[in-house]
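Check my protein:
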Amino acid sequence: MTTSTAPLVTRPLMLRFVSIVASSIGFYLPLAAVPMYAAAAGSETAGGLANGVLLVATVAGELATPRFVARVGYRWALSIGLVLLGAPALVLLATSSFTAVFAVNAVRGVGFAITVTAGGALTAALIPDGRRGEGLALVGLVGGVPSLLALPFGAWAATHWGFGPVFVLTAAAPLLAVVTIPWLPRREATSTEHHGVVSSLRRGALMRPATIFAASAAAAGVVVTYLPLALARNAAWVAPLALLLQPAAATVGRWVAGRLGDRGGQSRLLLPGLALSITGVVAMAVIGSDTLVLAGAATFGAGFGVLQNASLSLMYARVPASGFSAVSAIWNAGYDLGMAVGAAGVALLVTTVGFTPAFIVTGLAMVPALLLARRETDGEANDSTSPQPALSALPAAA
């Protein structure tokens, strides 16, 4: 397998980077601030439920977006998604009622779902087929760095400046990015009748990579939710450093996977990505050893990043451009649902048997996914299906 010589970063992709950064800021900046806002209004429970509403609305929106894109086109869908992600935050300047908080988060969840699903499909179409793995790795870096900075900054700004500036910035970033959307490519409409979400859910060639990644996403939900609690008796710097190492290593792993996958095939990266993820989670189970916890966080992050890039690149390679929206919806929904299932599913284990057994069980729960990864590696599914040229098949952006 050879890498395309087509340029990777083009003017349309650079313009798309603007809305990628904006949507990352719009989603992650208030993610911790909104629960703080609800708690300040009198209910910590409402704060937690608010982000639950956000997540449910996001998953529902992701699964519905491909049909929406088929009707209005990528540019209109992306514009509407950015507006829904940003503008509702301004409502919270006027009221802190729990009804308003829930409604705002529900609308913002739908907006984020549209931006990542429609935007993700559009982004894939802007990247040359032979360099899609490398291109998606670059996109992950462009969107990942702002999210890493925006989440802690939102909490810090809410504490030091108040909630108002956070909500204004949350609205401003996506709304300002809307001005770049008309400059993105406009192409003729194409039928998505045979490449919708429902039909794609029945395709093993798509669901195997999605399931493999969802298994790692579930483990990520466990790590993010319970590792800080598990390390409460360790030195104060261990948990923050571990939570920094994990996404940093994921970024590196995603980039390496993009480079290697374009040259040697994406399916070959699934087994090593899973092996790294499982090893990392089991190492983090040894919570009495700071060294093993930190090494485990980095190892898990690297595996998670490899699986992120390899699974998504593989799924895009197996559909024509008319199926990009469905792939984006399924992959993002698997990501979000996996995180939620991991965090919720381990709660009972943590309370009954403790953190160490819970992390070990989390690692073991990923083992069945190795069978799917082995099937991919053995060549029972092809890396590509001769997809149609991406840009010529873009839905109209009226």
